[in-house]
Amino acid sequence: MPRLLFLIALLASAVRRGAVDASIVDGLEVGFYGQTCPDAEGAIRNVVNNEIGMNRGIAPGLIRLFFHDCFITGCDASILLDESPAGDVPEKESSANGFTLVGLRTIDIAKSTVESMCPRTVSCADILAFAARDAAVAAGLPSYDVAAGRRDGMRSNMDDLPGNFPVPGHHVPRLTELFSQRGLTQEDLVALSGAHSIGGAHCFMFSNRIYGFSKDADVDPSLDPDYAARLRQVCPPKNPNNDPQQAPKVKFDARTGESLDTAYYSELLARRGLLTSDNALIEDAQTRAMVEAFARDEVMWQQKFAEAMQKVGMLDVLIGADKGQVRKQCRLVNGQEQQQQPQPQQQQRQQQLPWLRPQPHFPWLRQRRPPRPFPRHPMGDLINGFFRGFH
Ligand code: HEM
C-alpha cells in the first residue's frame, strides 16, 4: 500500500512538473545531509571527478552500478556487499555483475572520505545515487537533484537476479515486463537505455550475434554489415576456453563513446546497436517511435533520462532508523568486520575470483567473513547466465 501511494504521488508529481523534483518524495529529501554532513555531496562529487579524471571508464561503471543495485531489492547498496551475513552468495558474484562491475573502488574512496568527515552518517546507498548523478554530469548530462535518506540493506543474494534482471538477449516484451515489475515504464526503459551511449560491453555479451547466429546466417542480419565486420575484427570467435576476463570490451557508441548523449539512438537507427536488447528497441513499433524522438531531441532525452534516474533511485528504498543501517564500510554489514580470519579455502577462492581480491588501498577488504563454497565455475556461470538467459 505505501508503495502504491508513493507511485501515485510520483506520477502526479511527474505530470505536474515534468520532472520528479519534489524536495521530499516518500521520505527521501533533497539536501538530506544539509545539517548532518553538509559537505558530503561536494566531497563525493570531488572523488568521482578525480577518479573519472584518471579513468573515463569509471563514469559508465558508476551509472551501471547504481542501476544494478536499485533494480534488485531496491536502492540498498546490496550490490556492494562482498559477503552476506546470512551466508548467501552476494549479488556481486552473479553473472550479470562479477568482474564486469566497474567503480567499486571509487565508491570505497567516496565512503572513506565522507566517513572521515561525518562518521556513520552517509549511507552507501545514497553515495551510489550521488555518484551515478555525478558520473552522468561528468559525461555531459545537465545536473539533476538527488533526493537522499536511503539506508543500507543487510542482505545480498545472487539468487535474487535470475528471472528479475534484464539480460543482453532480451527483447522488448520481456524488457518492458521486467521494468514494469519495478514500476518503470517503457519510456523509462528507452530513456535509461541511453546510458549505453557511454561505456561498452565485453565481446562475449554479443558474440552470438556475430558468430553462428542462426542456421541460415552466421551474423545477425539486423546488424549493419560493416559494423558486424568491425566487431568480428575486434572479437575472436566464441570459445569456451577463452578467459572471459581477457575478452575485449567494445564501446557501445563508436562515435561519441565518452559523452552521454543521443548518438546512441542514432546508432540504433543505423543498425549499430551492440546488444540484442539495444537493437530490440528499434524492432518494436512503440519503442522505435521513442528512439526516433530521442534521436531528434537531445534536450527532451536529457530530461527523461534524469527523471528516470530519479525514479530508479526511489525503488524500494529503506527509510527510517528502524530500517537497515548506515554501513561503516560499503562492502560489509556493520559488525561483520570482527568475524574475519583468513582461511586456506578462502584464499583459494580469492585466487579463483581475482576481481574480488583485496585491494591494497583498502586494508579492511582483507577482512572477510568465514568462507563458504563457491557455487559454480565463474566462466561457466557467465556463459550459462548470459547465453541461456538466467531462467
Ligand atoms: C535494458 C536492459 C539492459 C541490458 C540487457 C543491459 C546489459 C548490459 C551489458 C551486457 C553491458 C556490458 C557489460 C560488460 O560487458 O562489461 C552493459 C553495460 C552498461 N550498462 Fe547496461 N543494460 C541494460 C540497461 C541499462 C540501464 C537501464 C543502465 C543505466 C541506467 C545501463 C547502464 C550501462 C552502462 C553505463 C554500461 C557500460 C558499463 C561499462 O562500460 O563499464 N544499462 N549493460
Which labels suit this protein?
single chain, Peroxidase, domain 2, oxidoreductase, Peroxidase, domain 1, two-stranded antiparallel ribbon, mainly alpha, 15 helices, globular, 391 residues, binds protoporphyrin IX containing FE, 2 domains, hydrogen peroxide
Brief synopsis:
The protein is mainly α. Helices cover 43% and strands 3% of the residues. A two-stranded antiparallel ribbon has the order 1-2. It has a two-stranded antiparallel sheet with strand order 3-4.
- The CATH top-level class label of the largest domain: Mainly Alpha
Task: Point out poorly predicted stretches.
Answer: 4-22, 341-391
**What structural category do the secondary elements indicate?**
mainly alpha
- The percent range for helix content is 40-55%
Report the end-to-end length measured between terminal Cα atoms: 29 Å
Tell me the fraction of residues in β-strands, as a range.
under 5%
